[in-house]
Amino acid sequence: MSNDQTARTAGTRRFHLGYGTNGLADHPLDTALQLVAEQGYSAVALTIGHPHLDPWNADLPTELERLRDHLDRLGLAVVIETGVRFLLDPRCKHHPALVHADADRRMDFMHRSIEIASALGARCVSFFSGVLGEGDSEEDAWQRLEERVRVLVQAAARSGVVLAIEPEPGMVVETVRDALRLRERIGGGDLRITVDIGHCVVVEPDGIRGALLEAGDLLANVQLDDMPHTHHEHLPFGEGDADLTLALATLDEMGFDGIAAVELPRHSHDGPALVAASMLALQDAWQQVPARRRRLRWMADAIGEVSQDPESVHRIFPGAGRFAGRCPLDPSGDPTGILRGTEDDAARVHLLDHLASVLDPIRHAETLRTLYLRGDSSERRGVLRWFNASTERGDGGLTADLVPTGLELATDALRTNDRGLVAAAAGAFARDHLDQHDWRHAVLKLVFMDIDLTAVAGLELRTDAELARMARDFARERTAAGRPVPPDIHRLIRVPADASSGRT
């Protein structure tokens, strides 16, 4: 697919979509670039070092001239990435780093990366701080980082190159806020910021959108990947917790005009397939950007109004479906939205998050109860999902004063025959707060209603012998009546997947 075809598919977009060469480490560089261009990417994130570009190659100027011509022929813009693992120390990943006592080899590498970026006309050089060295104090690390980055920014400015610090989980500069702190310590200059949307899921307090907006005009480079919220692991799109559409919509809203490149450094074994699959995911996400932008505008207006008048939530909350949409958040994996929620669920959760910041706990509990009891099924589901989201985050939004209200509402939902309400009531809040007797009956009700047990948070943690007995009795009754046994009941009693044939 050509770049022009991609533009027509995705619509008007100011920023480039790229792919990182560290995800194609089993291919020669020229072949990797060809694979990227063939799928319609208009940029590449080039990782300096093995196996693609040796910064200490004696014939480097000639190689860079040839490479720049090749990039131009393919129509690929470029950013330089410096995250190669063992180039500087064959035994210790990313060592030495800028925060370490002896960082001469890292500084030499960074200067060479700046020279390479200048020769290739790269948009920026992206780099990281490093983890705290053994025996080092945090202030020692910051002092070294400050001194060295100041030198590098000055060198980059002389070469017409932009430097962008990338916050990384576990490193001294871990969040965008840390990057801004570093910039302040060195006196500003042209130090910019790289944001990896996967990292945002793990460490950024305000998530992907908050981190991108906080970087603001200083955002020079973006890395795109999926990631679980629990740990730092780069995954293909759709396998983690990152909201790709939200990221693209926020970049579009910001007028970002740099490069946003897919970052899958541990997936070279399936590189060609993921280059293609990632572009399809990006195109699909981009098609959803206009609707997401409308939702973001509505949400901003709604939050502003609730800030001024908290009682307005009673008028705004019902309209979430009309303005934010009702589509499932995961159309392919959860086409009904019962398991992972819908667009209006997410909008209502976000609105209630803000409400928690403007109301005292007692008034907040009263408001949540009223919104649930006076609401239709979708509004009630939104309240229940807020209890689940607040429980998962564990950030203090769900105070002890709110737990009795949550229990009242979850218990009410579990008495209904509304599949969406029952599924929402079996989430993280039920896992942490519902007593074992009621929790067992909630799980069995999901089985009875043929709702996938992935809706149940903490299933393996809380399943006990009594629940297994109840599930076994249920399976036997269904079998005796000649009715099918839900296939995932084996998760409770280890019934074989073909239990509908009568074997329990």
Detailed description of the structure:
This protein has 504 residues and is an alpha/beta fold. The chain has helices at residues 3-10, 29-38, 60-74, 104-120, 138-158, 176-185, 197-203, 207-215, 244-254, 271-287, 289-308, 313-316, 320-324, 343-358, 361-373, 377-393, 403-414, 419-425, 428-433, 436-448, 459-462, 465-480, 490-493; strands at residues 16-20, 43-47, 77-81, 125-127, 163-165, 191-196, 219-224, 259-262. The chain has an eight-stranded parallel beta barrel with strand order 1-2-3-4-5-6-7-8, surrounded by seven helices. The longest helix is centred in the first third of the chain and has 21 residues, at 138-158. The termini are far apart.
Strands in their spatial order, largest beta sheet = 1-2-3-4-5-6-7-8
What is the C-alpha radius of gyration, as a whole number of Å? 26 Å
With helices defined by DSSP (H or I, 4 residues minimum), what is the helix count? 23
- How far apart, in Å, are the first and last alpha carbons? 52 Å
For the report, how would you describe the main beta sheet? Answer: 8 strands, parallel, barrel
Count of extended strands:
8
Stretches with pLDDT under 50, minimum 5 residues? 1-10, 495-504
Q: What's the pLDDT, averaged over the residues? A: 92
Task: Give the overall form.
Answer: elongated
**Protein structure class:** alpha/beta
Q: Roughly what percent helix?
A: 40-55%
Portion in strands: 5-15%
What is the element layout, followed by pairings?
Layout: H1 3-10, E1 16-20, H2 29-38, E2 43-47, H3 60-74, E3 77-81, H4 104-120, E4 125-127, H5 138-158, E5 163-165, H6 176-185, E6 191-196, H7 197-203, H8 207-215, E7 219-224, H9 244-254, E8 259-262, H10 271-287, H11 289-308, H12 313-316, H13 320-324, H14 343-358, H15 361-373, H16 377-393, H17 403-414, H18 419-425, H19 428-433, H20 436-448, H21 459-462, H22 465-480, H23 490-493
Parallel strand pairs: 1-2, 1-8, 2-3, 3-4, 4-5, 5-6, 6-7, 7-8
